Amino acid sequence: QVRVVESGGGLVQAGGSLRLSCAASGSIFRIAGWYRQAPGKQRELVAAITSDSSTNYADSVKGRFTISRDNAKNMVYLQMNSLKPEDTAVYYCNVVTGWGVDYWGQGTQVTVSS
């Protein structure tokens, strides 16, 4: 069983930075992604990273967010800079194992005040 735990969320002023961490235990993951869901909106992909560290970003966060991974620790990170109020959401980590099964964390709240 794979367990996914996010951390690092919090309250920050607009223009500030936060770093989210995702710990995945139980299996090595092939692909990992950060998603977010704001109140009344659908969950959306923010950033994703493959096993060879290829990355993909939503247009709304390009140039501000950076996804990275530490394979030795089975960790995924999301560095978020120049945060905006519209980045406020619950952020979820998703990992896909080599078997193609994906797992979600419980989410971490990010609130950006104006």
- Tally of helical segments: 0
Largest sheet, in brief, is: 7 strands, mixed
Number of strands: 11
**Which ranges are low-confidence, i.e. pLDDT below 50, for 5 or more consecutive residues?**
none
Global outline:
globular
**Oligomeric state, counting identical vs distinct chains:** single chain
Strand content: over 45%
Secondary structure category: mainly beta
Descriptive overview:
The chain is mainly beta and 114 residues long. 0% of the residues lie in helices and 57% in strands. It has no helices and eleven strands. Strands 2, 4, 5, 6, 9, 10 and 11 form a seven-stranded mixed beta sheet that branches. Strands 1-3-8-7 form a four-stranded antiparallel beta sheet, with no helix packed on it. It is globular, with a radius of gyration of 13 Å. The protein starts with a strand and ends with a strand. The model has no long low-confidence stretch (mean pLDDT 95).
Quick description:
By secondary structure, this protein is mostly beta strands. It contains no helices and 11 strands.
Strand and helix layout:
Layout: E1 3-7, E2 10-13, E3 18-25, E4 29-37, E5 44-49, E6 55-57, E7 65-70, E8 75-80, E9 89-97, E10 102-104, E11 108-113
Can you give keywords for this protein?
globular; seven-stranded mixed β-sheet; four-stranded antiparallel β-sheet; mainly beta; 114 residues
